[in-house]
Amino acid sequence: MDIYVDTANLDEIRQAADLGILDGVTTNPSLVAKEGAEFHPHLAKICEIVSGPVSAEVTATDAAGMASQGEELSRIASNIVIKCPCTVAGLKACKALADKEIRTNMTLCFQPSQAWLVAKAGAFLVSPFLGRIDDISGDGVELIHQIRQIYDNYGYETKILAASLRHPKHVVDVALAGADVATIPFGVIKQLMNHPLTDIGLSKFLADWERLQASQ
Ligand code: E4P
Predict the structure, then answer these.
(1) What gap in Å lies between CA 110 and CA 133, rounded to an integer?
(2) Which residues, listed in sequence order, are joined to residue 126 by a DSSP beta bridge?
(3) φ, ψ dihedrals at 209, nearest 5°
(4) What atom in ligand 1 is closest to the CA of residue 55?
(5) What does each C-alpha distance from 45 to 7, 26, 48, 211, 212 come to in angstroms?
(6) 8 Å CB contact between 51 and 80
(7) 119 CA to middle of ligand 1, Å?
(8) Pocket test for ligand 1, best of 25, 28, 55 (most atoms within 8 A of CB)
(9) Spatial CB neighbours of 214, under 8 Å, sequence gap ≥ 6
(10) Helix-strand-coil percent breakdown of the chain, rounded to 5?
């Protein structure tokens, strides 16, 4: 499963890239707004740090507007992927962009039928938002299972990007459900390599080793 970092913060992106296991970045208007930076130059900086797919979201709500914003954003760097919402207008924009060989990430996906239609329209990625489904007492992981089965039944090549992940268990659950990519907040990426028994075990090994050195 590929791993993207879900942030627009340059320090976090640099730190995640330094881990050596980062495949891409997702941003959204809320994450970019948090940075208070100018959109296009900020995206260009992200694309200099990471060579894998970097998602940049359109803000138009009509199909023609989304497609033209998408074309403009795609000129920033060759690794930009255009994020459009899973609406009727987004579906049309997805098809228009796919026809021009511009890759899309279809975001705000909450039901399998949305994932099915955007796959038919040629989406590169679809982003089911697990955490937000769980937030309203739904079953986000089940959505990944359903999309996986539909895509496998018919051989759709759209990649399932599990989004809105809140904790390490979400990450493990989506890997088991067959997601192609997980986009993860930087804080959660750091948690993935932590376990108290690892720390306790390491302290004991080092203490025993020091005792041995002292006795020789
Ligand atoms: C990623 O592409 C999404 O925009 C992001 O994962 C949403 O996460 P949130 O539900 O925590 O805002």
Answers:
(1) 7
(2) 106, 160
(3) -65, -45
(4) 2
(5) 13, 14, 5, 50, 50
(6) no
(7) 20
(8) 28
(9) none
(10) 55, 20, 30
* Tens-digit pLDDT profile for residues 121-158: 999 999 999 999 999 999 999 999 999 999 999 999 99
Residue nearest to atom 7 of ligand 1 (CA): 164
Distance CA 129, CA 5 (A): 15
For the chain, which residues score pLDDT lower than 50?
A: none
Query: Which residues participate in catalysis according to the annotation?
Result: 83
**Amino acid letter, 152:** D
In 3D space, the residue among 34, 32, 64, 36 whose CA is nearest the CA of residue 46 turns out to be 32
In tens, the pLDDT along 180-195 reads 999 999 999 999 999 9
Residue 85, H or E segment: strand 80-85
Please name each of the domains of the chain with its CATH number: 2-215 (3.20.20.70)
Dmax (CA) for the chain in angstroms is 77
Give me 169's structure tokens. 């268990």
Pairing, β 54-57 against β 24-26: parallel
pTM for the model: 0.96
* pLDDT for position 85: 98
- Cβ 128 vs Cβ 139: under 8 Å: no
Place of tokens 């997805």: 94
Find out whether the beta carbon of 129 lies less than 6 Å from any atom of ligand 1. Answer: yes
What pLDDT is attached to residue 67?
A: 98
